[in-house]
Amino acid sequence: MKTSADAWEGGWHRRAHRLVSPNQGPRPGGDTAVVDLVVIHSISLPPGQYGTGAVQQLFTNMLDWDDHPYFQSIRGLQVSAHFFIDRGGVLWQFVDCDQRAWHAGQSHYRGRSQCNDDSVGIELEGLEGQHFEHAQYTTLIALCQDLAQRYPIRHIAGHEHIAPGRKQDPGAGFDWQHLQSTLGWPADRFPSSVLVRP
Prior knowledge:
Elements: E1 8-9, E2 12-13, E3 17-18, E4 24-26, E5 37-43, H1 54-59, E6 83-85, E7 91-93, E8 99-101, E9 108-109, E10 112-113, E11 119-125, H2 134-150, E12 155-158, H3 159-162, H4 176-183
Parallel strand pairs: 3-7, 5-11, 5-12, 6-11
Antiparallel strand pairs: 1-2, 4-8, 6-7, 9-10
């Protein structure tokens, strides 16, 4: 059985489907950058539709903007995340975790701005405020454990916590209590609004 230490090939997760995004860059500080934050997002394209492949297309700049009316509202958007977990729990990776993905936007957390600089972004296929699948939590939990083996993870938050008022994902349907209790990480790694006290 593979351990977390075996999960990585550099900053690439061995069990993820690799699909490289052009929307990335070096982290400030390069090899000395301290990656200590995991940011959880939700996404579906078009909103509320799953398994379309459009998320993968968006993150690789291959989305046909004319394929759906909603896509006109995001036309030209260049974004990425390190990981995407579909409804079946399948893990995709677009950016080497040692590099900076473009997922957080204008953000502030832990007394620091520009959260893209020192975070790993994980997108869950879903709609903000709605529930996520058991298979997604299983993959997310295993991924967080693997990330903590490679990086000094000290914080985990939602996009809504690092960009309050601007973003609402993953939203009320995300089960922070399940994530915290299963990971067994200290409460101070989580946003204060989702803390589960013993």
